[in-house]
Amino acid sequence: MSDFALSEAEFRELYQRLRRTYAWGPGDRLGTLNSISRAEVVAAASDVRDGRTVSLAAPIESRAAPDNPDPAVHQMTGPADSASGLSFATDRLAMNIHGNADSHIDALSHVIFDGELYDGIDARAVTATGATELSIDLAGQGIAGRGLLLDIPRVRGVPWLEPGDHVTADDLLAAESALFDRIEQGDLLFVRVGHRARRQSLGPWDAAEARAGLHPAALELLAERRIAVLGSDGNNDTAPSAVEGVDFPVHVLAINAMGMHLLDYLDLDALAERCAASHRARFMCVVAPLRLREGTGSPVNPIAIF
Q1: Cis status, amide bond into 71, omega within 30 of 0
Q2: Cβ contacts of 26 within 8 Å, gap of 6 or more
Q3: Residues 71-129 pLDDT 10s
Q4: C-alpha count within 13 angstroms, C-beta hemisphere, residue 84
Q5: Distance separating alpha carbons of residues 191 and 266, to the nearest angstrom
Q6: pTM of the predicted protein model
Q7: Which pLDDT score is estimated for 1?
Q8: Cα–Cα separations (whole angstroms), residue 203 to 66, 70, 154, 272
Q9: Read out DSSP for 153-179?
Q10: How far apart are CA 22 and CA 223, in angstroms?
Q11: Least confident of 2-11, 47-56, 113-122, 137-146
């Protein structure tokens, strides 16, 4: 057994610890977004210095690839005739929100574990027509606060982490130490593993089968620091799973146990360049999901403001 492996029993003990750590009380619907105070949003805004903006999203892809066999469909629906007078160019987009290529945010209704959603809500709240509880529209007013980038390949001195590699709590602490900045309560934390850089350099691969991500035990550190949101340029979860009998353990711990929105498959390369150039890894960040009233997630384009 790998040194990184957890048994299902060890995972369930971790699950219960994290569930107790982030217990906001019965009836809670915001989860870790409760960790962001209005004062912290104001403080993040006051840290803006030159007004530069950086998108943390990858372009939506409409071509099939090994990690995106069912890509978004972008269709032009107009104009029918633009020879004279007024006409409009119009289009239509259809896509799977939860895939292995496009940037998206997971709602708290996305992960079912042992028949329950976050806060013990019966999984039957997710129906054939949508999520009647914990939909992404709970974040419909937007998520804003202090963003912090932890660039793991930069700390390790490599261009990217290889598929199957785990980001541990020690990696997070080493990245934190290199920044002379702490992971703090209410942070929108972004962990770069170099997934996009590897994909750009070597081409797409089947990320469902092999990808770098966080080790589930690293979530204890993030729970202690009371972060609000977690995002990565990968899926946040490592594949193959480190937990015997449990796929996507980070999703289960973050979303289902802790009530934390996850952002998957971001593009953090431009952000990493801006952070390196400005010698700072913190920034104001605004995340604006689509208003999908019963959606289990949304395409997303987070914006870092320096």
Answers
A1: no
A2: 119
A3: 999 999 877 676 778 888 899 999 999 999 999 999 999 999 999 999 999 999 999 99
A4: 0
A5: 10
A6: 0.95
A7: 44
A8: 9, 17, 21, 20
A9: HHHHTSSSPPTT-EE-HHHHHHHHHHH
A10: 7
A11: 2-11
Give CA separation, 101 vs 62, 238, 274, 286, 303, in Å: 10, 15, 23, 21, 19
Those residues whose C-beta lies under 8 Å from the C-beta of residue 280, and which sit 6 or more positions away, are 181, 306
CB atoms within 10 A of CB 199: 22
CA-nearest of 288, 236, 238, 287 to 258 is: 236
Token readout for 162 is: 């290889």
What pLDDT sits at residue 177? 93
pLDDT at 2: 65
Token reading at 283: 């920034």
pLDDT of residue 11: 97
Those residues whose C-beta lies under 8 Å from the C-beta of residue 161, and which sit 6 or more positions away, are 152, 153, 167, 193, 194, 212
Query: What's the confidence (pLDDT) of residue 82?
Result: 67
Q: How far apart are CA 248 and CA 2, in angstroms?
A: 17
The full 3-state SS of 177-189, as one line of letters, equals HHHCCCCCCCCEE
Query: In sequence order, what are the residues at sequence separation of 6 or more whose Cβ sits closer than 8 angstroms to the Cβ of residue 108?
Result: 29, 31, 117, 118, 134, 138, 255, 259, 261
* Distance in angstroms (rounded) separating the CA atoms of residues 252 and 131: 17
Residue 77 burial by Cβ neighbours in a 10 Å radius (0-12, 13-18, 19+)? exposed
The structure tokens listed for 267 are: 């593009």
